[in-house]
Design brief:
5-stranded parallel beta sheet, globular, disordered C terminus
C-alpha cells in the first residue's frame, strides 16, 4: 500500500498521520510506503512562498490544485477565481499577486506530472491519501491521474478533512475515490485493505463511506469507535528525512518531530468553546506517559532532532505529574510545542519550562470577561494576563489569537480592551486574530439560531475552487458564511482595539519593559519602559512596598486585600500606615498603571526580573500550521 500526503502540510514536519497509519498496518502484517509529497512542492516553489500560500484561508490553496482536476475533467480551469482578487490583504506585495498565481499554474502541472512519473505506482494495489489541511484539491488531482494510469488501483481518502458529511460528499463529486474513512484510520484501514484484496464488499465497515454496485454512496455508522489510550505505535520518519536529503533541504530548515500523547479535549468534552470546530470527536484519551517518553527518546536518538511538536488538542493534566517531571529528571535538552489551557498556575508553568516546553498555544482569544463568557472559555481575563506574565518570566513563547465579531458582544468590551492593552506592552502580543470564522462541528455551526447566527452555506469563495452543486459544496467544506441576527444590534467597532494591538506589537518589537527588580535589604525598583518613545520611569520601593507589590503578583480580591495583607504581613501592613496608607499606595500604582483592577482583583503587571529565565530565540514561524505569521523574503517569492 502507498500512503500519500500532499500540499499543504508544513514541510518542516514529517506526516504523523502517515507514520501512524504505517505503524498500524505493520502490526496487521500489511506493508506500506510513505510519500510526503508536500515537501516536494515546497522545494519546487520555494519554502517561503509555500508557507505564505499554505497559511491563507483554504479556498485559495485548494484552488491552486483543484484547477488541475476540473480543467482536464470538465474543461474548467477555474480562472474565475482570479477575478475575485483572492489574496485580499494577505499578500505582502499586491502588485505581484497575479504574476505569482499565473506562474504557479505551469509549475503545479509539472509537479503533478512528475509525481506520477517518478514513482512506480504499479507496485501498489491500494493508495491512501491523508487529508488534513486544505489537501482536497491536490488529492483529487493526483487520484484522477493515478486512477487513469492504473485503473485497478484502489484509492482511499481519510483524515479530518473527511469527517462528518464531508467524506461522503467527496465520493459524490469525485469518481476516482473508492472509499472514504470518516473515523480514526487505525481502527479500520487494515480491514479495508483486506476487503479490497479479497474482493469483499465494504458493507458494515464502521465509519467508512463507499459505493454500492449501483453507484449509490453509503456511509456505514461509526458506532462511536475511537482509539483507546493503551495503543502502542512506533513512529517511523525515515522516508521524510530521506526526502529532505534527496531534495537538498536537509540544511535549509530545522524540522520538528510531531508526536501525539492524547486525542480529544478534556475541556471540550465537558464544555466546548462556542467557536471551536477542531474536531467532531471530543472524547478525551491520554496515552501512557512511559510509552510516550520512550517514543520521544527513540525518535531523538534515531533522527538527532530534539524539537517535538505535540499534535494534541490540549495538554493532558496528568502529565504535569508524570511525563513532564520524568523528562526533566532525565536531563533531556529538548524543546516542545504544546496547546494548553490558559488558567495554569505558575508552578505548573514551571513544570512545563523544566521539561523543555518553550512554545505554547494557550487559546487566550480575548482579554475581556464578557467576550470570554460568550466563547465559553472557562477562564477570566486576569488568568490570561497571568499566563502571559509568567510565560515571559519563564522563557515560554505564547502564540495566541484575539477574536472579534462574536454574536452578542457589546461595544463596552472593546472599549475596556482598548484601555487595557497599552498597559500590557511588555508582554507577548497576539500573533494573529481577526473576526471569528464559522467552522463545521463548532457549537456556533451546530446550533446557529441559539447564538443569533444565520447560516448562509459554504464560504462563497469555495465555489471558485469546487464548481459543484451548492448542496454538495455546503456539505464539503469546513469554513462557512453567515450573517448575524439583526436583533443583536449594529456591529460593534473594533478599530480602537486593532490599533491598540498594532501599537502593542510595535512596542514589543522595540523591547518594551515593565519589570520589578528586588534589591538587597528587601527594597525594590520598578522600571517602566512600556512607552518606548519616551525615557523609562523608575519607581523605587521600600521593603514594605516591595512586599505588597509581590503580594499582588497573582491578584488579590480588592475587598479582601487589606485584611489578608495584614494577616500575612503584619509588620509591612503597619509600615505602610495601615489600611488607609495601603489604599493610597494602591491608588498611586493604579494611576501609574503598575497594577490594574480586573475581575474584582488588584493585579501587579510587572514581571519579576530576579526570576527571569535566560532568553531564548522564539520558535521559527514556519514550524507548523500554527497562528504565528510567516516571514516572507521578497526575492525568494519573485524567484
Amino acid at each position: 500500500m502507498a500512503l500519500v500526503s500532499l500540499p499543504w502540510m508544513s514541510p518542516t514536519l514529517p506526516s504523523i498521520q502517515l507514520a501512524t497509519l504505517a505503524s498500524a498496518l505493520r502490526q496487521e502484517g500489511i506493508e506500506s510506503d510513505v510519500h510526503e509529497l508536500y515537501v516536494d512542492y515546497g522545494a519546487r516553489i520555494g519554502l517561503n512562498l509555500y508557507n505564505l500560500l499554505g497559511n491563507l484561508l483554504g479556498y485559495l490553496p485548494e484552488w491552486v490544485f483543484s484547477r488541475h482536476y476540473y480543467g482536464p475533467e470538465q474543461g474548467d480551469d477555474l480562472a474565475a477565481m482570479l477575478e475575485q482578487r483572492p489574496f485580499g490583504d494577505d499578500f505582502p506585495w499586491p502588485e505581484l499577486a497575479d504574476s505569482v498565481l499565473a506562474a504557479l499554474e505551469p509549475v503545479t502541472e509539472e509537479y503533478l506530472d512528475d509525481l506520477v512519473r517518478q514513482t512506480d505506482w504499479s507496485r501498489y494495489d491500494v493508495v491512501g491519501f491523508s487529508l488534513t489541511i486544505s489537501q482536497l484539491g491536490a488529492s483529487m488531482a493526483v487520484a484522477r491521474r493515478l486512477k487513469r494510469a492504473f485503473p485497478a488501483l484502489r484509492v482511499v481518502f481519510g483524515g479530518s478533512q473527511c469527517a462528518g458529511p464531508m467524506g461522503s460528499t467527496i465520493l459524490r463529486i469525485c469518481p476516482y475515490v473508492d472509499a472514504v474513512v470518516h473515523i480514526e484510520g487505525e481502527l479500520v484501514l487494515a480491514d479495508l485493505v483486506r476487503r479490497f484484496r479479497d474482493r469483499r464488499p465494504l458493507r458494515g465497515l464502521a465509519g467508512v463511506s463507499h459505493r454500492t454496485s449501483g453507484g449509490e454512496v453509503v456511509t456505514e455508522p461509526a458506532a462511536e469507535l475511537v482509539m483507546g489510550g493503551s495503543r502502542k505505535l512506533d513512529l517511523d520518519y525515515d522516508a521524510y528525512f530521506h526526502r529532505l536529503l534527496r531534495l537538498g533541504l536537509a540544511d535549509k530548515m530545522n524540522p520538528w518531530l510531531p508526536f501525539e500523547s492524547s486525542r480529544g479535549c478534556w475541556y471540550g468534552q465537558k464544555v466546548q468553546c462556542t467557536f471551536c470546530g477542531l474536531h467532531d470527536i471530543m472524547e478525551f484519551r491520554a496515552w501512557d506517559a512511559d510509552a510516550v517518553l520512550a517514543q520521544l527518546e527513540r525518535l531523538q536518538e534515531r533522527y538527532g532532532v530534539a524539537r517535538f511538536y505535540s499534535m494534541d488538542l490540549i495538554l493532558p493534566r496528568e502529565y504535569l505529574r508524570t511525563l513532564l517531571p520524568r523528562i526533566a529528571e532525565r536531563g533531556h535538552d529538548w524543546m516542545f510545542f504544546y496547546e494548553v489551557k490558559a488558567n495554569m498556575r505558575r508552578s505548573e508553568l514551571e513544570t512545563l519550562a523544566a521539561a523543555g516546553i518553550r512554545w505554547v498555544q494557550p487559546g487566550i482569544e480575548s482579554l475581556d470577561a464578557d467576550l470570554l463568557a460568550l466563547m465559553r472559555k472557562g477562564v477570566k481575563p486576569h488568568q490570561n494576563i497571568l499566563l502571559l506574565k509568567w510565560c515571559h518570566e519563564l522563557g515560554i513563547y505564547c502564540g495566541w489569537n484575539l477574536l472579534y465579531g462574536l454574536p452578542g458582544e457589546s461595544q463596552a468590551s472593546y472599549t475596556r480592551m482598548a484601555e487595557l492593552i497599552p498597559k500590557l506592552a511588555h508582554l507577548q502580543p497576539p500573533s494573529g486574530g481577526g473576526r471569528f470564522q464559522l467552522h463545521r462541528f463548532s457549537p456556533y455551526f451546530e446550533h446557529p439560531e441559539a447564538h443569533g447566527i444565520q447560516w448562509q452555506g459554504a464560504h462563497r469563495m469555495y465555489r471558485y475552487a469546487f464548481p459543484i452543486a451548492k448542496e454538495d459544496l455546503d456539505q464539503l467544506v469546513y469554513l462557512h458564511d453567515f450573517t448575524l441576527d439583526p436583533a443583536l444590534g449594529e456591529p460593534v467597532g473594533t478599530a480602537a482595539v486593532e490599533a491598540a494591538v498594532q501599537g502593542w506589537r510595535r512596542a514589543n518589537r522595540s523591547g518594551a519593559t515593565l519589570a520589578l527588580t528586588e534589591l538587597s535589604g528587601g527594597q525594590g525598583v520598578i522600571l517602566d519602559h512600556r512607552d518606548v518613545e519616551k525615557a523609562p520611569t523608575r519607581h523605587p520601593l521600600n521593603q514594605a512596598e516591595t512586599t505588597l507589590y509581590r503580594y499582588l503578583d497573582v491578584g488579590v480580591a480588592e475587598k479582601l486585600l487589606a485584611e489578608r495583607f495584614q494577616r500575612d504581613h503584619r509588620a509591612c501592613f503597619d509600615a505602610l500606615g495601615g489600611e488607609s496608607g495601603m489604599a493610597a499606595l494602591v491608588a498611586r500604582w493604579l494611576a501609574d498603571d503598575l497594577v490594574i483592577r480586573i475581575d474584582g482583583k488588584i493585579l501587579a503587571l510587572a514581571v519579576h526580573a530576579n526570576r527571569m529565565a535566560p532568553r531564548r530565540q522564539p520558535p521559527p514561524a514556519d514550524a507548523a500550521a500554527a497562528s504565528e505569521p510567516v516571514l516572507v523574503d521578497r526575492a525568494a517569492v519573485m524567484t
